[in-house]
C-alpha cells in the first residue's frame, strides 16, 4: 500500500472547468468539458445535466480499458431522467498529448494509476460545483479498468456514498503474473523479464486489495460475469470478500462486457442508495 500522502491533492481550490461544446438530448444537457487534473493536464469528460433545478444526485463513471468516456454516455443520459447528474471521464492514457500531465517514463505505470484516482476525486469537486447537486448523494460506477481503480478510490474518498464495481481486479499485479489471457500473456512475453518485474513492482502498491477494506460506511455493489474472459470467479470472490460492508455481489450469464440485466440492477441499486425512489418502468425499459 502506498503512503496516504501519495493521494493528497488540493481539494480547497475551485476546479477549473472549460466548456468545449454542449447539446440537448431531450430534456438532458450533454456538455463536453475539460477540467484540470490535480496531477497536471486536463481531463476530457461529459457532464450530463438533468432538466430542472434539482436537487440532483451525482454520479461518476469510469470506463473499461478497451473503451472511453462514451461507454456509459447513453446510460448516463437515461439516468438523468431520474435526477442523476453524471460525469463520464476519459482515462489518462487516452488523452491527446496537449492535455496530458508530464509523467516520468520510469514510473509511468504507477503515476498513471495515481492520476486516475486524483482525477476521480477532482471529479467529485466538479460535481459539487454544479447548481442543484446534493453533495450527500454522490455515487461511482466503474467497469474493469474503472472498477479496479474504483477499488482504490473507495478506500480513500469519503464523499462518495455508494460504488458499483463491474468486473474489476482486486490485485492486478498478481493477475498479471499468472494470467493466460492472450492479451496479458503477449504483453508479458514481449517484455524483458527484468522490465516485467519492475512493472509489477510499480503497480503492486496500487492493487485495490489494499484499499477496498476501508470503504465503510459507503456501500458496494459488485457485478461479475460467469463467462468473463479476463476475471476468474476466484479473482472476483477475492475482490468481494476483501471489501468492507455493506456490500452485495451479483453474477450474470455474460462475458466481460456484462449485460442489460446488470444495467437494470445497478440503476435499481443507485436509486436505493442515493434515495431516488423506485426505478421507473420507463427508465428500466430504456436500460433493457
UniProtKB/TrEMBL annotation:
Descriptive protein name: Peptidase S9 prolyl oligopeptidase catalytic domain-containing protein
GO MF terms held by the record: serine-type peptidase activity
Organism of this sequence: Dictyobacter vulcani
Alphabetical GO biological process terms: proteolysis
Source organism superkingdom: Bacteria
Gene3D superfamilies linked to this entry: alpha/beta hydrolase
Residue ranges occupied by any Peptidase S9 prolyl oligopeptidase catalytic domain in the UniProt entry: 108-244
InterPro entries named among the record's database cross-references: AB_hydrolase_fold (IPR029058), FrsA_esterase (IPR050261), Peptidase_S9_cat (IPR001375)
